[in-house]
Amino acid sequence: MINKQELPNKISIFPLDNFIIFPKTSVPLNIFEPRYIDMVNDSMKTNKLIGMIQPKNLNNNGVPELHNIGCLGKITSFKETSDGRYLIELKGIIRFKVIKEINSDKKYRECEISFDNYYDDLENKSEALKFSDLELIFKDLKMLFEKKGFVINWKALEKQNLDETINALAMASPFTLEEKQVLLEAKNLELRKTKIAEILTTYTFDLYNNKTVQ
Fold it and tell me: Which domains does the chain have, with CATH numbers?
């Protein structure tokens, strides 16, 4: 994967709306905007790393402000289509904090970042949590996913490592982007599991009482 010494202090930023990635999860991306075609080209020539981060409201210049916390991803698969699009797969590596945006002549944005609070994301340590701890969360999430029309391969999820499962559920869940940002910023796996349970209570109230999810 990548070790601590290989982490850059400056990365290209992909502020993709309605999208979030977590460490130890993989997602496909369809790249078609010229500036992000440039970004992928530059990334493929160097370390194959891209910083995914959620944009916030537009500032006075019409440029979206960024959340403080994002996730570094590595391109693990790359294919160019006949019409010039790039189909890539991005693997979440480690979260980062934005220190400042860097002025450059590139079409895409770059930021100076810090990984200081998130080195645990690189480790494959065993967690105190067990899948039995997730039984109630799984039950409520399944109900919510079904109500929202989401299809999840639960058996495949249960074969993954626990941290991969929790992060995949957090990323794929039909929560709001603000709620997913809270999950991304949760310090560790235990806290992320707790936050998922807390967020679920607001949805399961509707599931059990109103039988609808708004």
Answer: 4-121 (2.30.130.40), 131-208 (1.20.58)
User: How do beta strands 26-31 and 69-80 pair?
Assistant: unpaired
What's the pTM value of the predicted model, to 2 decimals?
A: 0.82
Instruction: Give yes or no for a contact between 33 and 54, defined as CB atoms under 8 angstroms apart.
Output: no
Q: Which residues of the chain have pLDDT under 50?
A: 207-208, 211-214
pLDDT digits (tens, 9 = 90+) for 150-196: 666 667 666 667 777 788 878 877 788 889 999 999 988 888 888 88
Q: What angle do CA 64, 12, 8 make, to 5 degrees?
A: 135
Within 13 A of 116's CA, how many CA atoms are on the CB side? Answer: 6
